[in-house]
Amino acid sequence: MRTLTTTVLAIIRLTTSTASLAMYILGYYVFQSFILVFILTALLLASDFYYLKNIAGRRLVGLRWWNEVNIQTGDSTWVFESAEGRGQNGNKTDNRFFWIAVYAQPAWWVLIAIWSVFSLKIKWLSIVVIALVLTITNAIAFSRCDKFSQASNLASTAFYGTGFARNVAGSMFSRVFSRS
Prior knowledge:
Strand order of the largest sheet: 1-2
């Protein structure tokens, strides 16, 4: 039963992440209505962000994160959480799928950003910036949740075979999200 549940979660995760990409690309070529594509893509990106942050991350790999704001001082604190024993009971396929999808999605949006700049469609770049902010935020936050660096190891093994990606990402973003 657990396998069926996680398979459904993974399929929904794949659907939500590809829907925004598909809407942007189809909208760019088919609809050619910037406002319609902007609204629909932003809604799909928001739903993907919500689903990944609040459902898929918790259920597939046992990780979650959130931001708390102290109403008296206005200070913002990022909270990262990892479920106990998630490494022992977790499905390696779910884990691998989750981390590859989390890191691949911003990579696709970076390619689309480069394509938008070179094709001189600068106004379409505003959608890409929103997508990059949301997808990179999730990637960084879930990487911080993974206290045993399993995400970095999987990503570097999948893409480079060394710890290069982990070292670069760790040094670039270590100051962005510091635990308080």
